[in-house]
Design brief:
295 residues, two-stranded antiparallel sheet, rod-shaped, 71% helix
Length: 295
């Protein structure tokens, strides 16, 4: 086949265009850090990248849930510590009041403090996290207790869950009746109310009976406290697992979509060298004319 000067020029321009296109792609990859800028660059790789991005976004949501659950339970752990301190103080005061040498006025002074402790327990029962009540089941927008009627008020029995994986959800909330006792029974609020009444009326039998009821309330509180600790451990384990899964997903995504910067720089430098060589060769070819052949 006869190769004409025009064919040489066309081929030269085609080669230069291909090299420039390849260099532009390399420059874009280095600028963005991504191998794939559009699906046509790597249809199969694009499919993997989308799957990894979806998995990472979902795992980030699960990680946020796990962290939120941990924070809620840490708040509840602190609240139950406060409730335990209230009961310890109530027990100490009750033991003092049970002393036969105490006069009515002294027991009434203790009664005043017991009433304050009961109000503090109601405040604990109405505690919130980010504006949501912690001890009223799924009715997180309603306070479970009032100062006057806490002894006879029911809390919502529902539980609030957080998803930490596609198939795992962990309960976060504990209803007030589990922690403080059911309405209509000797729940902690009724125990403190009855104790205050016994102290005000110098009812020594009622004062002595309150000790056992306070201990029962403390035992019930301890059971809930242990449950909170177990759930905190569960959320911590899930946080660690999700974080490990994210590391693996990011590595797999990077293998598909991220640019190996050192290799990309070397490749771009090689293309620049090829471009310079092509331009140099093309300049010599395109300078050749009929006069050059007649010399």
């Amino acid at each position: 086949m006869r190769v004409t000067g025009m064919m040489q020029n066309i081929q030269l321009l085609k080669n230069l265009r291909n090299i420039n296109t390849s260099m532009t792609t390399g420059q874009q990859q280095l600028a963005t850090g991504q191998k794939i800028s559009k699906p046509s660059d790597d249809p199969i790789g694009t499919g993997y990248q989308m799957r990894y991005d979806t998995d990472l976004a979902r795992s980030e949501e699960f990680l946020t849930n796990a962290k939120t659950g941990s924070e809620i339970l840490k708040t509840m752990d602190s609240l139950l510590q406060q409730a335990s301190d209230v009961l310890k103080r109530a027990r100490t005061l009750t033991m003092q009041a049970a002393n036969g040498t105490y006069a009515l006025e002294q027991r009434q002074t203790i009664a005043a403090e017991i009433k304050q402790l009961k109000e503090q327990m109601v405040t604990i029962g109405n505690s919130t996290y980010n504006g949501r009540y912690l001890f009223n089941g799924q009715k997180t927008d309603q306070a479970p207790y009032t100062a006057a009627g806490a002894a006879g008020e029911n809390t919502d029995p529902g539980l609030f869950y957080l998803n930490v994986s596609p198939s795992v959800k962990v309960p976060v909330s504990i209803t007030g009746e589990v922690v403080f006792g059911a309405a209509g029974t000797d729940n902690v609020f009724k125990v403190l109310d009855d104790l205050a009444t016994a102290l005000d009326t110098d009812n020594r039998t009622g004062i002595s009976a309150a000790l056992e009821k306070i201990d029962a309330s403390a035992d019930r509180l301890s059971v809930s406290w242990a449950e909170i600790g177990a759930r905190m451990n569960r959320f911590e384990l899930m946080e660690n697992r999700i974080s490990d899964d994210q590391v693996s997903l990011k590595e797999q995504r990077a293998h598909v979509a991220d640019v190996d910067v050192p290799t990309a720089i070397i490749d771009l430098k090689s293309k620049e060298t090829v471009l310079q060589a092509a331009l140099s060769t093309g300049a010599r070819i395109m300078q050749t004319s009929l006069v050059d052949f007649l010399r």
